[in-house]
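Exercise 3.2. Students should predict the tertiary structure of the chain below and write it as structure tokens, then compare their answer with the key that follows.

Predict this chain's 3D structure.
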Amino acid sequence: MQLNRSPRKRRQSGVSMIELLVAFVIFSFGMLGLAGLQSRTLSYNQSSLFRSQATALADDILDRMRVDRDNALALRWNTELASTSSSITPLTYIYQTDLKDWKEQIEALLPDGKGRIAVAADRSVTIEIEWLDNRTADSPRQSFTTVSRF
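Answer key:
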């Protein structure tokens, strides 16, 4: 009696080249994605640092103005965005030295940084700090504005 037996199926041993290639392609796309994510994270961290520095600079100048309240209420601290640290002369009064120092810090810490102070008659002070956020080529200027009272 003869039985028709099907031939034994051969078991695959090892990994084929196609499977290796597919695994390598998937792994490569994953690594490229992680590299892009790391790059974007660094960019956002830089923006966050600039915003933190602007906040600290605004607090610094408000503290200096509170110490020199008389000159602040006489509107001597007022300055425009277009003015730079080199445009503040002569340095005969403390408020001029403080203002020049503040503008120098903005220019040193923030890319294309500019600062403005506006003291109003109702004893309110508006501090505005602008800088160039270069995350992309066409990024708009970033700004930080705070309003306080004496």
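Discussion points: The chain has a mean pLDDT of 88. The longest helix spans residues 17-67.
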